[in-house]
Amino acid sequence: MSRPPVYMDNHSTTPVDPRVLDAMLPFFTEHFGNAASVQHRFGWIAKEAVEIARKHVAALVRAQSKEIVFTSSATESNNLAIKGAAEVYRSKGNHIITAATEHQCILGSVRMLQQQGFDVTILPVDRYGRVSAEDVRKAFTERTILVSVMTANNEIGTIQPTAEIGALCKERGVLFHTDATQSAGKLPIDVDAMGIDLLSFTSHKMYGPKGAAALFVRSRDPRISVAVQMHGAGHEHGLRSGTLNVPAIVGFGKAVQIAMERMEEENGELFRRRNMLQERLLRIPGTAVNGHPTERLPNNLSISFSGVRGDQVMTAMSDVAVSAGSACLSEEVGDSDYSHVLQAIGLNGGTARSTLRFGVGRFTTDEEIEYTAARVTETVAQIRERTMIGAV
Ligand SMILES: *Cc1c(COP(=O)(O)O)cnc(C)c1O
Known about the structure:
By secondary structure, the protein is an alpha/beta fold.
């Protein structure tokens, strides 16, 4: 009973890679300068480190360094992209297209814009969680200024036809934003080839620290602008004021560098371990995998277990950290007590509440996969047995 708990919730956040921590440490004490204090050496050192990180972050999505704005979180990046673009391009139109399975920070932002008079189309998804590019095309109006569709989903892992949607937006001269938080460091991203104008991602989901994230803002063909949401002394080309979190940005840069070096091999390892877990868990009767069978993140596994509630399993299995389909409640997004993503793919409340999300990570071992599979199998059986006895 003395084994350490297993972390199988890598879609929520990831541990900091020890190499990332090593890169960060000097920037708390020795190199503590303010990156905006360019009058002295302390500031120069901090600024230089930030610019190296910016280069790595830009390279991950094949952007230019000057197109990267550092923020505090993907939530902030998404708010800046959606609200910032809506404000600037309002004179061209007031219609925004997004999808039902987006993160709450996207849905919350468009809902706020709706209250300010914007028209918002929330596209449905198919039973695997995919948006159809054809639906995007049909939703365009003369007034459409922005499309925001995530690259991959945080609950069911489904990968969207990002390049196809990007191409349609290019054709129409409509801005395309994508929340690449779950795919950054896993799927290759090329902002030019994929027709992306605005793109968000965050450090803490790719083995970097919390408190650093990026927004890519296209600077050519065409040059995009977003309206400032954080006014101040003019950091980040005036787009996002506030003293930069230098240690976190340095860590973010290092995390990106590591991800780029081994993306393919690491994906192979994630994929193998995820499939191992999936194969074991599907041996339990009354189980079904959610998300796309093939167009899915290599580390994602969302499974519904008929007749048991996800939160019951989680409580009974406190040494394995997973996430339930009832998580991510937000008052802004619907009023049901289960995930809007599972609702969007057509699961009823009962099935959605019986869903668990597993997220395999860089540091997950085969032994942890085996242990998790065994614990879930035994816990589900126990709960089902108890429920049956209770029903007699
Ligand atoms: C985690 C997540 C976010 C929010 O990221 P933070 O950096 O924690 O604000 C946004 N979108 C998706 C898809 C996510 O998975």
